[in-house]
Amino acid sequence: MQKQKNVSLILDDGSKFSGISFGYERPTAGEVVFNTAMSGYPESLTDPSYSGQIMVLTYPLIGNYGVPARSFSGKLSTFLESEKIHADGIIVSDYSENYSHWNATESLGEWLKQEKITGITGIDTRELTKLLREKGSMKGKIVFSDENEIDFIDPNKINQVARVSTTEIITYGNGKKRIVLVDCGVKHNIIRCLLKRDVTVIRVPWDYDFNAIEYDGLFISNGPGDPDTCGITVKHIREAMKKEKPIFGICMGNQLLAKAGGANTYKLKYGHRSHNQPVRLVGTEKCFITSQNHGFAVDNNTLSDEWTPLFVNMNDGTNEGIQHKNKPFFSVQFHPEAASGPTDTEFLFDRFIEMI
Ligand SMILES: NC(=O)CC[C@H](N)C(=O)O
Q1: Tens-place pLDDT, residues 268-292
Q2: Class of domain 160-355
Q3: Which of 16, 269, 299, 316 could staple 136 via S-S, CB 3.0–4.6 A?
Q4: Domain 5-157: top CATH class
Q5: How far is CA 49 from CA 53, 54, 82, 248, 270, in A?
Q6: 277 C-alpha to center of ligand 1: Å?
């Protein structure tokens, strides 16, 4: 049997938790955030929006269904949300090295080791989450011997989007309608959802001036870190708004579209990361269960008269989407592409394509 290494999780308020390493043996630091979904660790770990973050899973049993193949279907991952793991570490309560699933090809621990990502088990993730709920998301580090092995890092002070966005233009599909996709750290299921609707997707880097491209619709993706790091993207979106072609944004895309419209964003205490976030369509009693992963939010009070909130979070009343009152621009804070999570709001992709 392999020797189990004891490791410590240290938070910047001085709290310390002891656990056992089950991934790559490397100290790591980042923002410690919790996710209350019961499944979906392969998708969440490869979601670029987790760049700079150490993910705590509250569901206790993790690893029991293994990890799918890291294969590609054309230019997209067959089962995952990007080419690699983007989270900077994972914290679980009860890691299961034994796995069973028709689609699994390796264990979570094996995958973490290959991708050099730290994983720790044996932590009371419910106690840890209670702390993060009381004090808010905190900086944290996982160390193997000495507490000073690595410094705390505030990932929101670093341009995470520049770390994960494509550096070249990539084209997918050959449908008649041409969508420019601004890649702030796009999840592959967003591209799959667009391609299912028979369009051409032109994926461009986050800071690329796409206004020179001929397109029918503009899509702004999800992405990691503080939306304030994407000033150049906001400038390009503001320019694009003059063309009055349809614009759809998801998560970071909601925040950047709001900023282009003159509104502000702020950091939530501990964010929304789960599969069961209830949102209400403003002006109706209709509620949807959504998949979410964000730490920042649009401040409704700063929306100009031209914009209106589109969805509202039923748990805390925060903004979950915006819509322009007379132009075809809208965006949502949650993930209609799911992956993982419920697909109740996938119809929003149809709405975008119909607008074109
Ligand atoms: N998934 C996302 O696009 C997240 C957006 C932003 N990084 C936030 O945390 O709010």
Answers
A1: 999 999 999 999 999 999 999 999 9
A2: alpha beta
A3: 269
A4: alpha beta
A5: 9, 12, 11, 18, 15
A6: 15
